[in-house]
Specification:
This protein has 185 residues and is an all-alpha fold. It contains ten helices and no strands.
Length: 185
């Protein structure tokens, strides 16, 4: 039962996939899974053979996907009639590459621009008493840029300018007289 491939170009991949999935489910219910997959695999190849005698058409993306998926269910090398084994393996590899390309996309928020990063570092260096919350507030009020304090902390850098010295007063600094008197006794 050959079907026209014009449907896949006008409506996309989904109708062809749905049709083939329904055919596969019907075949699975009648017999074993491997026989059903092989049957659909052969029907697809024969459909191309009949269509190409009338007018040659390229293999659609839907068909490549279906053949690559069905090849996992049985020994497909004996069932190949029109497509070479290298071609089917190439389709499978291409699908694998597309899957991992999709899977490895960057997720989350994008980094802030270099100009803003430099501005944050300058603000932190020029105002050592300001913390991440103050810098975030200044950016919001003065420039309208909204960043969380944790984002500001990430870009403040390790050296935020001169370190504040905390004066530690010793007993000798506070009352030098009493220390001198105490030592002479």
């Amino acid at each position: 039962m050959p079907k026209s491939s014009s449907r896949s170009t006008s409506f996309g991949i989904l109708p062809d996939l749905l049709h083939d999935l329904l055919m596969l489910i019907r075949l699975i219910l009648c017999s074993r899974r491997a026989l059903a997959a092989e049957n659909l695999f052969l029907r697809k190849q024969l459909t191309f053979y009949v269509e190409r005698k009338i007018r040659p058409r390229p293999v659609t993306t839907t068909t490549r996907l279906i053949l690559a998926l069905l090849s996992n269910w049985f020994s497909w090398r004996e069932a190949l009639v029109i497509v070479k084994p290298e071609t089917l393996l190439g389709w499978h590899r291409r699908g694998f590459r597309l899957f991992w390309k999709w899977k490895s996309k960057r997720r989350g928020r994008p980094r802030i621009s270099k100009d803003v990063q430099v501005l944050i570092q300058k603000m932190a260096a020029n105002n050592p008493t300001w913390g991440q919350e103050r810098i975030a507030a200044e950016l919001l009020v003065k420039l309208g840029l909204r960043f969380s304090p944790r984002t500001i902390r990430r870009y403040m850098g390790t050296s935020t300018g001169p370190k504040l010295r905390i004066a530690v007063a010793t007993l000798a600094d506070v009352c030098p007289q009493s220390c001198q008197n105490h030592g002479s006794e």
